[in-house]
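Minutes, project check-in
Item: structure for the 477-residue chain
Input as provided by the requester:
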Amino acid sequence: MFKLKRYTCIGLLGICLAGAGCKVPAIVQSTESKPVPGFYEAGMDSVAMTGIQWRTFFTDQNLVNLIDTALTNNQELLITLQEIEMAKNDIRIRQAPLLPTVGARAGLGVEKVGRYTSQGAGDASTDIKPGKGVPDVLTNFGGAFYANWEVDIWNKLHTAKQAAVTRYLATLEGKNFVLTNLVAEVANSYYELLALDTQLDIVRQNINLQKNALDIVKVQKEAARVTELAVQKFQAEVLKSQSLEFAILQNIKETENRINLLLARYPQPVVRNKSAFLSLIPQVISTGLPSQLLVNRPDIRQAELNLAAAKLDVKVARAEFYPSLGISAALGLQAFKPSYLVKLPESILFSLAGDIAGPLINRMAIKAEFANANARQLQALYNYERSILNAYLDVVTQLSKIDNLGKSYDLKLKQVDALNLSTNIANDLFRSARADYFEVLMTQRDALEARLELVETKKDQLNTVVNIFRNLGGGWQ
């Protein structure tokens, strides 16, 4: 009889192993391609400026204070920190199956079986001494410790934990990516605010000049040197500039509130130095080598870690095709009267069992999950390659932009000087009746537009340097 049971167990085990030996889908091989070019098009320095901490990179103390507040209070950053905590808890979840599950249970039950059942008939035929029979209504008291454990024979559980650890590291890089974007966004908004302040001063200065010109035109009209048309033209130009003043004031308020949102505070003035914006000199650019992007850019490192985790997920999904080995055990006391619980060894119960189980028929769900894991792996690979390509193109674009903006700023500065001189000349000629009022209006309008464009170009220069600092991976150290 014992040999028969043993052979039965061996036969069942053989069936399971045979099922495990069925053809298992192969893992889709994914290899990284498209290596990063050796140099940028501009051939910059070999040491990247991303090694500079943002506190050193930004010299304006007001801007440093704003960034400090944003790094403490920004809600997006706080949300990202909670994602890190969730990823850390996921590691604990994946680690739990590696250890046996041990628990305790206690119970109380009441049961009465029918006399004309197999169990009831068996009780009736049992030879029990008078007065010692089993009650018809049978209670059951018991308590036991139990344990369950899946033996990680295919390294499936360890691989799942390793994937969770890798994703946790990816969330840390995600936090760094949020940091570098937050620093850049605060800095760009701050420079935009300084530019708007400067443009507001220019417009107000221009309004005063236009009002003076309007007064002159009114005097000339009384002297019959110009008509009412000239007065109305100058008046319309003043009204246009005053309208532009309020538009800039609205832009200032919106930019201040954008900064306040980044700093997670209610609307309030942003402390800043409103003077000498045009005298700000952009930082000298030092990009380093393109290969350094793989180390410095948090989004690239995050994509790389997500790719590694996806590859581990494929291994976990593939292990589902193989049989699993589980061990369970229990030890406790059980009796139908509480007083019998202390009678040992009669009230002792124990069990120890091991089972091996594997999928044989209808493995469609496992195959589908394995196919999804393969697809997610390829997805992560393409995302990794795209992150590298985007990073390289971002840097090249910004390098070209800073070069062209520098040349454009020099030309616009000369344009402003020429138009300022033209305005003075036009006013003098107009007073001596040697120039038409229309020439004065057009010269003033061109001078105003050129000065505003000069401020806009300076803002673009500063923002471009900030963007290069961010695109190279700076700002999170």
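Outcome recorded: The mean pLDDT is 85.
No further action items on this chain.
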